[in-house]
Design brief:
Blueprint (H helix, E strand, L loop, with lengths): L2 E8 L1 H5 L3 H11 L2 E8 L3 H7 L9 H8 L4 E9 L1 H9 L12 H5 L8 E3 L3 H11 L10
Antiparallel strand pairs: 1-3, 1-4, 2-3
Helix pairs in contact: 3-7
Length: about 140
């Protein structure tokens, strides 16, 4: 299996609800290694760039505004097939349809306020990572 890195962002609703530790705990218990971690309040420019793939879609402005509504916690994790593993762990975007046992299934009843974002591909990770982190902020494997 390929060792990959991926980005998880605990969104403002997850931070407000005190779910950062729960998200981190699930990632670590799964065997993923944290390589970078930071809390930040995204600027409008960062939020627009982060969600640039959705520009022009009806929900884009609301998503950008929501992302700026409070601090987020960004986490780079590494592990075997990390991208697909994390996507499975968080569940579908719509928390109302996410199965129990997934992060969204256990904690969300919304499409917008769905606790976490996770990169869906290596290309997305590369683009999203640059919005939040510098290469020098990522710890090497240990």
């Amino acid at each position: 299996m390929p060792v990959e890195r991926t980005l998880i962002v605990v969104k403002p609703d997850g931070v407000r609800r005190g779910l950062v530790g729960e998200v981190i705990s699930r990632l670590e218990r799964k065997g993923l290694k944290i390589r970078a971690l930071k809390m930040l309040w995204m600027t409008r420019e960062q939020a627009e760039e982060f969600y640039s793939v959705h520009k022009g879609k009806p929900f884009y402005d609301e998503l950008v505004k929501f992302t700026q509504s409070g601090p987020v916690v960004a986490i780079v994790v590494e592990g075997d097939s990390a991208i697909s593993v994390v996507r499975t762990m968080i569940g579908p975007t719509d928390g109302r349809k996410a199965p129990p046992g997934t992060i969204r299934g256990d904690y969300s009843l919304s499409i917008l306020e769905n606790i976490v974002h996770a990169s869906d591909s290596e290309e997305s990770y590369a683009r999203e990572f640059k919005v939040i982190f510098r290469d020098s902020e990522v710890m090497p494997g240990y």
